[in-house]
User: Fold this.
Amino acid sequence: MLALAFLQWWYGPGWFRAWNSLGARLKRTYYGFSVPQLSRTLFAPWRRIVSLGGGSLGERMRAMVDNLVSRCVGLVVRLLTLFAAAVIIVWWIVIAIGQLVIWPLVPFAAIILIVRGVS
Amino acid sequence: MNFNPKSIRVRKAKLGLRLGKYGRPLGITITLAIGLGAIALYLKGQHRLAEILAVLALISGAKDLWLRWDIASLKADDPAEGKPLDGILEANLAARLPWPASPQAVWAACLPDWRASFMLVRLGLHPEIIEPNLSTETGDSEAVWAQALALAKTHDAQDINSGLVVAAILMSEAKLKPVLNQLKLKNADIEVVYAWLERLLDLERIELPLYGGIGRDWASGFTPSLDRFAGNLSKQIQSGGHHFGSLTESSAVTQLITTLSSGGAGVAVIGAPGAGKTSTVYALAQRLIEGDGGSLAYRQIYSLSASLIISAAQQQGDLERVFMTILSEAIASGNIILALDEAQLFFNQGTGSLDLGQILLPLVEGRRLPLILTLNPTDWQHLIATYPSLASALTPIMLSEPDEAHVIDILADTALGIEGKSHVIVQYEALIESYRLAGRYLTEEAYPGRAIKLLELAANHPNGKLVTATSVQQAIEGSMGVKVVQAQGPESNLLLNLEDRIHERMINQTRAVSVVSSALRRARAGVANPKRPLGSFLFLGPTGVGKTELARSLAAIYYGGEANMTRLDLSEYQQPADIERLLEAGSPFLTAVRQQPFCVVLLDEIEKAHPNLLNLLLQLLDEGKLTDTKGRVVSFKDAIVIATSNAGADEIRQHIEAGEDLESFEDAFTNNLIQSGSFKPELLNRFDEIVLFRPLNEVELAQVVKLLINEVNKTLANQNITVNLTDEAVGALVKEGYDPRLGARPMRRMVQRRVEDAVASQILKGTAKTGDTITLGINEVKV
Assistant:
C-alpha cells in the first residue's frame, strides 16, 4: 500500500515538487547575485565614487578619467558577479536536465537491481 | 464527520509519526553510507557490486526525498464542511486520532502537540482540570468538529491542528463552562489566543527574504559619517533583530511609501509617546529591505542620533559641519532615507543645543533627500510655530491609538520577543492585565507603547517561568507604588480591623472612621468604581475635632506613613490666577500625586477656594483625574480624597450642645449648607459621603490627653523613661486646654508646655533617671 503511495507521489506531487525546488534554487541564485540590479547598473560608477572636476580643462579631463576608471571597476566587478551567477544557473539547468531524464527511471532502478542480481 | 483511519494520508501520517525525529537523518546516513560503499567498491575494481550499491543508494535517496518532501510535510486540504476529516486534519493529529473518538479521546490525541500546549499554557489551563469534564461519548465529538471548522473558517486556518481542536473543545463543551467561568475565560478570549497561535504559524511559514542579494548596494555610495552618527535600521532588520509583522501592512507604512515614492519632500510621523512612531519607521525599513515599496525598494533607513552629533561637536560651528557632512553623504549615496527620531531634539534652540531647522529647510524644499521626522503632537505644533516653511513642506501622518483588540494582538506578538529575551512564557491574562493597568497607571504614554512597557516590566516578576496577571500587578506595584494585587494575609487583617487601628490614634468620630475604612475595603476588594477616586469624603465640623487627624491616621496606618498624605490648603487658592498655579506643569501638588498615586489627598478648608477651583474639583471627583497645563493627565483613581471644611461649625456645636445626635440633623444641616450658598449641590453630590464631626466632650478630651502622653512616652522610650499623669492632672489639663472654638487643637500645645517641660526639668535635675517612671500630679502640670 505504502509502495503504491510512494509511486503515486513520485510521478505526481513529488515530480512537481522537484521542479519547484529547482525553480526556487534558480530564483535564489538569480536574486542572491542581484542579477536585476547589476544588469540595470552595469555601467554605473563603482560605489558612486565620482569626481566632480573643476573649472579648468585639465581638471575636467582628470575627473572624466577618474569617473571612467570608476565605471570600469564597477563594470568588471559586476560582470564577474554576473558570470558567477550564470555559471551557477547553468549548473542548475544541467541538474534540471539530469533530473528530467533520471527522475522517471528511479523506480525502475529496483527492477534493474533485480535483473543485474540475477544475471 | 467522516474519518477514514485507513486512508493513504493517515497511513503516511502514521509512518511519519513512527519515524519520529531521528528516522529521516538515519535514512540519509544509510543512503550516504551505501553511496560511499559504491564508490569504494568501484575504486577497488568491483564494478558489478559497486553498480548494485549505486542503484541501492539511488532507491534509498528516492525514499529519503519521499520522507522529506511528502511524509514529513503532509499538507492538508483547506478545511471546509463536507470534506473528510482525514484530509483536513494536521498530519500528526490525524496519525494520533483514534476513531471513533469521544471529545476526551480527541483531547488526548491533541495533547502531545506543541500547538495544544501553546493554547493551554497561554490560557493558564491545566489538562487535568479539563479532561475529567470532557464527554466520553463518541457522538458528542460532532459539536467539537463543527466548532473547529467554524474556527478554521474565521481564522483562515490551513488545516485543523491540535491548537485549533483544543480551542474548539474549550468553546463547545458545555461541562467546561463553569471551569472557564471560574478562570474568567470567555469564548472570545480563547479565539484571541488561537489567533495568536495562527499568527505564529504564519510567521513560521514565511520564507527568509533575500534582501536584494550581494550586489544590492554596489551602485550606492559609502557612508562612513552616517554609519558613525546614525543607526542603520535596515541592517538591524536584515540581521534578524526585529520583525514587525502586521505593522508592515499598516496604513501609516503604506502612506509613507506612497508619499516618499511620489517625490514627497519628507514625512512627519506624528503620535503621542508610545503610539508606535519608531516601530512604524522600522516596519517601513522592513518592507523596503525585503524589496517592496516600488522605486523605494532596497533603500536603507538611517536613524540619526542627536546626542552622538552633539557629543562630537568640539567647537562652535562643529554641529552644522558634522550635520552637513552627514547630509551630503546621504544624498550622494543615493539609497538612503534619513529618519530623525524624536525630531524635536534637532530643533532645540539655545547654547549647546542642536537647531538644524535652517539647514534642513532647503534640503526638504529641494526634495534632495527623503526624510522622516517622528514627533509627538505638541512638538509638531512647536515645529509649525518655529519653522512654518519646513512644516508645510512635510506631509504629516497622524498615528492614532489602536483599539483594545488590536493592542492585545500587538502585545501577543511582542510577548514572543520578550519570551526569547527573558526565558519566560507570557500568559494571555498577562496581556489583558497589561492593557488594563497600563491604561490606568501609565497615563503619560499612548497604547500600545505603554502596555508593551508594562509587559516588559512584568517579565522581571515571573511566577515560576510564567508571566501572569499577578506578574503585571507586581510590576505596576513596584514601579508606581500602588496596590493592585489582591489583598491577603496581613493586609487583609489590617483592612478588616482598620477601624480599631485608627481608633488607636483617633478618639470617637466613629462614623467618619467607619465610612473611610469601608471605602478602602471596597477599593481593595475590587468592588469600587475604577474610574473615580477610591473614596471621596467631605468632613464637616469645628476645628480640632479630628478631621485632619483621621486623614493623617489613614495615611500612617494603611498607606505606609504620613508622608503619603498629600495636603492642599485651598485657602491659598482664592484667586482665579491661583488655579493656573495649581495646574502648571511641575506643581508640587500634582507632582506628589503623580509620583505617589496611592495616597490620601487632603483638601483643607474647601469652602475658602475660588469657585473655579471647585469646578475643577468636580472633574477630579467625577473622572478621577486632572490635566496639567501641558496636557499631562494626573490620576487620582488610587487616592482617597478627603475635603475638610469648618462651614456650619457653630450650627453643629449648637445641635450637639442641645443634646441632639449627629444623625438626627445631618440631612437638614447639609440642606442648610446648600441654601446658604456655602456649597453648590453638584459639588456635595460628587462626594461619596458627607461626614459630620462633632465637638469632643471632656471625657473624650481626657482620652486625647492620654494619647498625647503616649506620644511623649514614645519619644522618651530611647531614654527608658516613662511618664504617667494622675487623673486629676489629666482633668486639669483638659480644663485648661479646652477651647470650644479650637477643640482639641490647644491640647497638644498644653501637653508640650506642661508635661514635656516638667519631664525635661526632672531629667536635667537628675531626679529622673533611666528606667524611672515619672508620675505627674496636678501640682506638676499646673502653672
Chain B touches chain A at residues 8, 11-12, 15, 48, 51-52, 55-56, 58-59, 62-63, 65-66, 69-70, 210, 212-222, 298, 332-334 (CB under 8 Å). The longest helix of chain B spans residues 47-71. The two ends of chain B are 101 Å apart (CA to CA). DSSP finds 39 helices and 17 strands in chain B.
